[in-house]
Amino acid sequence: MNTSTALPRCTWCGTDALYQHYHDTEWGVPQRDPRMLWEMLMLEGFQAGLSWITILRKREGFRRAFDGFDPVRVARYDEAKIQALVADPGIVRARAKIVATIAGAQIYNRMAAAGEDFADYCWAFTDGQVLHGDGVHFATSTELSERISKDLKARGFKFVGPTIVYAWMQAIGMVNDHAVHCFRRAQLAR
């Protein structure tokens, strides 16, 4: 993680090297892999009430604990596995969020079994296009994040309120919300 503090970045990533690396290489980059889109949605759910840097610092612990966020494996977790996860200091040990992730894996798998690709589902909300914020005003939710949230909830997903969904949309590059002064804004607009 060789990052420079001299680069003009979004202010939210501060000077933390891990945060800067995430900002510079991942945040806002359009993600089209269905499993990764699901992983990021689950991690955003774990972030509820916490800061993203907390989740980012524990991300490898989450990946280890949740079998690389393999939805087929996660969907089969039983009570013994839930108890093991609740006791795992490498993750956020909120039982409700753990149970929601297992349910989210089951929903993901049902969608796949029905021939519905999770990436196609996610990107259909924008007709496959990246949306662009103005780089000056930063919403915490939008009409679109409210619509996506409502649809996800109707499918049974938990911890997918409009604010969480909007943060996910930014993270997965569905919205380019890099600040107008940020070096990544123009790079991702191409």
Number of helices: 10
Q: How do the helices and strands follow one another from N- to C-terminus? A: HHHHHHHEHHEH
**Integer-rounded radius of gyration:** 17 Å
Beta content: under 5%
Give the rounded overall mean pLDDT. Answer: 96
Describe this structure in words.
InterPro entries: Adenine_glyco (IPR005019), DNA-3mA_glycosylase (IPR052891), DNA_glycosylase (IPR011257). Pfam families: Adenine_glyco (PF03352). This is DNA-3-methyladenine glycosylase I. It comes from Pseudorhodoferax aquiterrae. With 190 residues, the chain is an all-alpha fold. Helices cover 55% and strands 2% of the residues. The chain has 10 helices and 2 strands. The chain has helices at 17-25, 34-47, 52-65, 71-74, 79-86, 95-113, 118-124, 143-155, 162-171, 183-189; strands at residues 131-132, 175-176. The protein has a two-stranded parallel ribbon with strand order 1-2. Helix 2 packs antiparallel against helix 6, helix 2 packs across helix 7 (118-124) and helix 2 (34-47) packs across helix 9 (162-171). The longest helix has 19 residues, at 95-113. It is globular, with a radius of gyration of 17 Å.
Give a brief rundown of this model:
The chain is mainly alpha-helical. Helix 8 packs across helix 9.
List the main descriptive attributes of the protein structure presented here.
mainly alpha; globular; single chain; two-stranded parallel sheet; about 0% strand
